[in-house]
Amino acid sequence: MRLKTEQLDAALKQGLQPLYLISGDEPLQVGEAADAIRAAARMADYTVREVISIDHGNEWPQLAMEADSLSIFAEKKLIDLRLPSGKPGAEGSKALIRYCQHLPADTILLITCAKLDSASQKAQWFQAIDNVGTVVQVWPLQGQELLNWLQRRAERKGMRIDHDAAKILASRIEGNLLAAAQEIEKLYILHGTGSISKTTVEDAVADSARFDVFKLTDALLAGKFNRTVKILNGLSAEGIAAPVVLWALSREIRSLFNVKTDLKQGANTESVFKKHQIWDKRKQLMQDALRRLNLTQIHALLVLCAKADREIKGQSQGDAWETLFEICLASCRPDFAKQRFRV
Asked: pTM here?
């Protein structure tokens, strides 16, 4: 069964499925959809939660181990499997197909992963999941869908944002829903419940997140370390949330990984850029980064992104901003970072 994110809450009220797959490159929607499933599972007494993060590809045996084991303290379990690359590989594909063929009792498997391309959606592992579970594919919101999302988000805080105000807000955040959620929270703190006008949004919403985060990724791709660190420190000082910065960095690094992988397999550069929507003005930046970083180094950057994500969510100890700095250093000066952090 396939659902849109806005259909998920209603589906969860009708009952839980044994398996959920949430994929997409929009972190707020992916995170909130996963949170909704975890909350519904807790309400249904799935009190044990085991997290498996597929960072290196050798963690797949853990899935079978968790599926075969039951806690002596609880009967129901949620397996929370993170697949940042969205590519399980041969071993992962076999593990997922085997899991779908022998669904364990009293267990829910929740998989979150990056956006899946059309080839991945035709793969046997994806088809196996689609046959027995629920697939939620998260797409970037644009146009009227984005305006509707902003208005629903404001309504959840007891605010009513008019159409013109929503359009201004949409133009400022340029599809960055994490930034949008922050701006709505700020509007709520400043003005409380009630109506939000176009003027109110113009006065309250800064556009620093839009510009600075993208300047950060441009500097990172270009390998300009000093400028990258200056922007990163500026974002931190201005109170920009770490998830917003991580969203921008991880999106760029996943794109690098996918482009590098396709090029390594012999694909034409222009075709690969077109496939991954690398437009003309960003081609040179992408080329600079591809020349500087090999596939192993880019994969290591994705692992650092996963580490920052866990630190932001309080799932592991450490300072997320320090890890974001490590990501910038390892991107701009991979040889130096290897000596310092063993990346």
From this structure: 0.59
